[in-house]
Every structure is written in structure tokens, then in C-alpha cells.
Amino acid sequence: MEATVLPTQPTFMAQPLAPAPLTQLRRTLAADALKLRRTAALRLTLFSGALPVLLTFMIFFFKGYIILKAGGTPWPRFISTAWQTAGTLLLPLFVVLLTSLVVNIETKATAWKHLYAQPVGRGAVFCSKLLLLLTLNAAALLLFVGLLLGAGGLLGLLKPTLGFQTYAVPFEAVGWMLLRTYVATLGLLAVQYIVSLYWRSFVVPVGVGMGAVVATIALLSWEHVDKIPYAAPLGTAMSMRAAKGGVLEVAHELASHEWYSLAWCGGVLVVGYLLLYRRNAPN
Amino acid sequence: MNPDTNALLATHGIHFNFGKRPILHDVNLHVEAGSIYGFLGPNGAGKSTTMRLLLGLLRPASGSVHLFGHNLARHRVALLNRVGALIENPSLYDHLTGRENVEATRKLRGVAAHRTAEVLALVGLTDNAHRPAREYSLGMRQRLGLAIALLSDPDLLLLDEPTNGLDPNGIIEMRELLRRLRQEHGKTIVVSSHLINEIEKVATHVGVIQQGRLVFQGSLPDLQRLQTGRARLVLETEHADSCRNLLPRLLGGATVLAPGTLWLPWVSREHTAELAAALTAAGQPLYGLRLEQPSLEDTFLHLTEAHAELAQ
């Protein structure tokens, strides 16, 4: 007896083939980067670092002769003043706003239904936006540091009496601060990312983030404050000291609140992804 | 492989609930390759929910969706590679230009760069491609959404109310475009609507959904045959009542509409001829005898209303 052979129809696939996971991620990233054009998220990244630098520049331009009357290198005082201005309130609020704005690009366009109907997995969508956020966050910090050092150089030109041009820039200490501050923002970035994705609104994550930042400031003297991700950037900014000998003292290792920030980041992303993965996408 | 080998798209016993509220009951769609399937139903009947299930945006409580003969739940990403969709209002990024909106999805799908200009030309938006999407009219947004759905040259197009917000000219253009896509490019298209008049001009097959149940599914001729079963004869004479009493066998099932007008279900041509002969033989004047076909709209209303009563 002959076996019945079904005619092969050209419209039917024998084996459905999906693009490789890395290809999906690369494509999603390319699209996400394009969608950033002319957005508030991008402007925020580019200009957020300028405010603390501008403030510090003005302070040192007009009152530098009082602050630096002890003489010696002006860099440690200058850098720590700017860093503490940025790290206490501005940095956590920047991360809150940035995550909410980036996720809101899709929410505002009611594009989640469109995105999930495209041939890219939910994992690619999740990772792509996360990578974008990590990059924007790093870019903002690097811009801040670049502007800060540039402002110091400018002070050296405009106010030679302050001595910015005669002393060396403490690059090593700045590098460590940069790394530790970045790590300190990761915990709250992850929490805010999941909150934004979960509620798919702009107001909820901003509200949650602002509330958490304010609550953290109220809780600063609590012995467990190092375990709150929203307190970590502040902890790092405060850990920097301009010591008497004109040295910028920065620990060359991660502090406990920075390890907690990393743990929050990893834990929240895994739990959040599992929570979001099986959810329906009605809008 | 699923047993429906000739169906490009098939659902098997789909049930779906929003919380505890049941939305879809046992929906079995069957869409043949190369057809334009009009998915009809009043607002709130479950059309959009069904469309979202077909794309894997929602997960059914039970049942399965098969595209191209494969289970969507298992091969979602691979299958979506060959599907283009426009779900309700197009998802447009207002801060980007028309062209950038197309580009965003083009990059996401890994489609060749020359397609952007092609699809923009296809929907007639080339001249406005440099303008931000926030300046677009409702009709232009709908066309841009369609351009994005067509980007990857998909074999299957799912369009949810694509004529929403279009003016009469736009509706005609959309119809022409769908027809061309099927005839010249061999696309299979599922298009949902709550307007039968819009569907009957373009669809080859029709599914009617009412309160989450599929109450009709078949070809357009099938639907037309369904309505011939509901055709009626209208008879005009002098005294309707006496006619009915004189010819109880032929006019027993007739209804008196007016003193001189009767109507009865249409049975056959022979029956009509016999009726005319019998009337004249009985000495009654025959002023008029005509066949009334209900419009597709009547049939659609009948289908949806009948089921609404049944459910109550």
C-alpha cells in the first residue's frame, strides 16, 4: 500500500524559523535607538549633568577665593562639591525620570501591542530597553564628569588665582567615583524599570520614584539605609572626602550599599522579567 | 501539523475571559489561503479580542491558534515573521516623522532598506513622509499604520477596523488596495469591521461574531444563499383576507400586511407560478407579485439579533 503524500504548499512552512536571539536583540536595539530622536529622555541625558556643574562653577567663580583660602590643590574641593550636589537628590531623580521617559515612549504611542506583534521575543524587547537605559545612564554620568573637568579647566583660565591650572587632575579618584556612582544607581534603575513596565504609565513610576527618594532622605539615619537602593547614590557621593593634605580620598572598592545596589538590580530584573513575561498585552 | 491543512489561519475552540467575564466562547475560525476574510460583528462582540489572540498578544484560556499550520503558542516569533498587523488605532510615535515611524519597524524586523520608500509610496504618503506623525490626520495615520503592516511583504495581513476614521474616498482606496494585495500579490487578509456594506464589497469569506460566539462562517456566496432562504413574496390584491381563506393550502403561511397586501416566505419558482394561477382561477385580481430579497445588512442584523435573543 502506498503512503499518501500530502502536496507541499508553498505558503506553509515545514519548520518555522525565528531569527536568532542576538539578531532579535540587535534589531530591537536599532529600533529603540531611532525612537530616542527628539525625545525628552535624550535631552534629559544630555543636559542633566550640566546643572550641578554650572552651580559649582558659579560658586567657585564668585566665592572660590573664600572656599580655597587654605591654598593647595582646588580640585578635591571642587569635585566633591559638584558630586555631592549631583549625587544627593539630582541623580536619583534623574534615574527615575529617565526610566519613566524611556518606557513612556512606547506607552504614549500605544505601541506595546505593535511591538509584541513583531517577530522579536519579549526577552529581546526587555533587554534592549534595559541596555538603552544603562547606556543613557552611563552617558549622562560621563558627560557630567567631562563637563566638570572642563569647568575646572575653564576656571584655571578665568581665575588663575584659584590654582586649577597648576595642580594635576585626580583622574584615578574620579575614575573610581564614576564606577562606584554608576553601580550605586543600578538598583534603583532596575526597580524603576520594572515599575514602569508593570504599570505602563508615566505618572505611576514617577510618583513611586519621587516618593521613594523623599522617604529615603527621611530615613538617612536608619541603620539599614544602605539596603535601600534609592539611598545608594547619596551614600557614594558622601563617601568621597577632600582630605587635609589636598588628596581626594576615594575607596578603591565597592562599599556595602553598592553591593546591595547590585543585588537589587539582579534580583529585581529576574523577578520582574518572570512577572512580566507571561502577561497579556492588551494595549 | 494541524489537521486543517488548507487553512492558513485556524483557531480551535478558543475561549477567553477578562478576569471572570467571559469574552469568547468556542471560536473556531478557518481562513483559507488567498482569501479576504471579513470578520464582522457589532462593537463589543469580541472582534478586537480575537484579533489580539491571533497575534499572541493575549493568551486564550483554552484552545489554540494555528498560523500557516503551526501552533502560535509554540512558534510565535517565527510565525509573526510572516504576519503584518494593524490593530485598532495604529501605534505611531508622534515625535518621529512618518518615514522614521516606518524605519523603526523596518529595523525591528530586519527588512531591506528600500522597502521604506516602497510602502510609503504604496499608501500615498511619500510627499508627507518628512512631517512629524503628530501632524497627520486620522486617515493619514491609518494609512501609515497600513504601510508599516505591509513592510515585510507578509503573507498574512490582520487588519482591525482599517477604515476607522477614513473618509469615503479613503474607504474606496483602502478597498482597492486590499483587492490588489490579494489578486496581484496573493496575500491572505483578515479584515474586521462592524459594517457589512464595507465587507461585502471586498471579502471572499465572512465570519460573523456576536456576543463572543461565531454565528456564521463561510464564503460570501454562502451568506448570500442564507439570505435567499429568507426571501419573501409580496402579493398585492383587492382583499387580502378573502384570498387567504380561499387558498388555505397556498396562502396558509401568509401574513396580512395591509388590507390589500400579503407576504409569505418564498418557496420556489413553481410555487410562485401556481399561486398566481390559483389566484386568477379563484377570480381574485392580481395587482402585483414580487420577490423581496433581504439585503446582506438585514441578514447580518438577523444573525446578530437572533443570537442576542437566544442568549437572553
Task: Annotate the secondary structure layout.
The complex is a heterodimer of chains A (283) and B (312).
Chain A: H1 21-35, H2 40-47, H3 50-67, H4 75-108, H5 112-115, H6 122-158, H7 171-199, H8 203-218, H9 232-239, E1 241-242, E2 248-249, H10 256-277
Helix pairs in contact in A: 1-6, 2-4, 2-6, 3-4, 3-6, 4-6, 4-7, 4-8, 4-9, 6-7, 7-8, 7-9, 7-10, 9-10
Chain B: E1 7-18, E2 21-27, E3 30-32, E4 36-40, H1 47-54, E5 62-67, E6 70-71, H2 76-80, E7 83-86, H3 98-109, H4 115-122, H5 138-150, E8 156-160, H6 168-185, E9 188-193, H7 196-200, E10 205-210, E11 213-219, H8 220-228, E12 232-236, H9 240-246, H10 248-251, E13 255-258, E14 261-265, H11 269-281, E15 288-292, H12 296-311
Parallel strand pairs in B: 4-9, 4-10, 7-8, 8-9
Antiparallel strand pairs in B: 1-2, 1-3, 1-5, 5-6, 10-11, 12-14, 12-15, 13-14
Helix pairs in contact in B: 3-4
Word description of this protein:
The complex is a heterodimer of chains A (283) and B (312). Chain A has 283 residues and is mostly helical. Chain A has one domain. Helix content of chain A is 67%, strand content 1%. A two-stranded antiparallel sheet of chain A has the order 1-2. In chain B, the strands form three sheets. Chain B has a six-stranded mixed β-sheet, sandwiched between helices. In chain B, strands 1, 2, 3, 5 and 6 form a five-stranded antiparallel β-sheet that branches. Chain B is built from twelve helices and 15 strands. Chain B is an alpha/beta fold and 312 residues long. Chain B has helices spanning 47-54, 76-80, 98-109, 115-122, 138-150, 168-185, 196-200, 220-228, 240-246, 248-251, 269-281, 296-311, and strands spanning 7-18, 21-27, 30-32, 36-40, 62-67, 70-71, 83-86, 156-160, 188-193, 205-210, 213-219, 232-236, 255-258, 261-265, 288-292. Classes of the chains: A mainly alpha (283), B alpha/beta (312).
